[in-house]
Specification:
- The protein is about 25% helix and about 35% strand.
- The chain has one domain: Nucleoside Triphosphate Pyrophosphohydrolase (Alpha-Beta Complex), CATH 3.90.79.
- The chain is α+β, with helices and mostly antiparallel strands.
- A hairpin with a 5-residue loop joins strand 1 and strand 2.
Length: about 180
């Protein structure tokens, strides 16, 4: 089996190399990633709980889908591919911002990502891949905000860092 790779980037998102995914996380090297946030027509966000077998952040709640670009695909192609692989559906998406973050985990791995954030809309139920997703739910922003304050350790780092900007964009777009 071919091991997955990530695209190493500089702080301006220019590709500087390629590395096996686990090695990049062991070394904490900056690499390109994406996060997808899918809302329904009621303004609820689809979040999912990461599979308990994930190599970091197992069992934590996070945005609808997140992963890494593969060699030879654009970020939007990667986001669409992975949304289908993890959640079992497709929808139109748009990129709304990017950010860099670094998070160290208790197992010694480091997420150091240049994260492209996408937003989309979908109103049906997903067909989850249980190798990737333990559970999922629609949640209204107010309930999510309250739970993030009460239970921050139940959520992934990248989700906590990006949620406020995603919500602000969603509110401004609706206005």
């Amino acid at each position: 089996m071919v091991k997955p790779h990530v695209i190493l980037v500089d702080k301006n998102d220019h590709q500087i190399g390629v590395m096996e995914k686990l090695e990049a996380h062991e070394k904490g090297l900056l690499h390109r990633a994406f996060s997808v946030f899918i809302f329904n027509n009621q303004g609820q966000l689809m979040i999912h709980q990461r599979a308990l077998s994930k190599y970091h952040s197992p069992g934590l709640w996070t945005n609808t889908c997140c992963s890494h670009q593969q060699i030879g695909e654009t970020c939007i192609e990667a986001a669409q591919r992975r949304l289908n692989e993890e959640m079992g559906f497709d929808c139109e998406m748009e990129e709304i911002f990017q950010f860099i973050y670094r998070a160290e985990f208790s197992n010694g791995l480091v997420e150091h990502e240049y994260d492209h954030v996408f937003i989309g809309h979908y109103d049906e139920q997903p067909n989850i891949n249980t190798d990737e997703v333990n559970a999922w739910k629609w949640i209204c922003p107010k309930e999510l905000d309250a739970d993030l304050r009460a239970n921050p350790n139940s959520y992934t780092e990248w989700f906590k860092l990006s949620w406020e900007r995603v919500l602000k964009y969603q509110i401004e777009k609706a206005a």
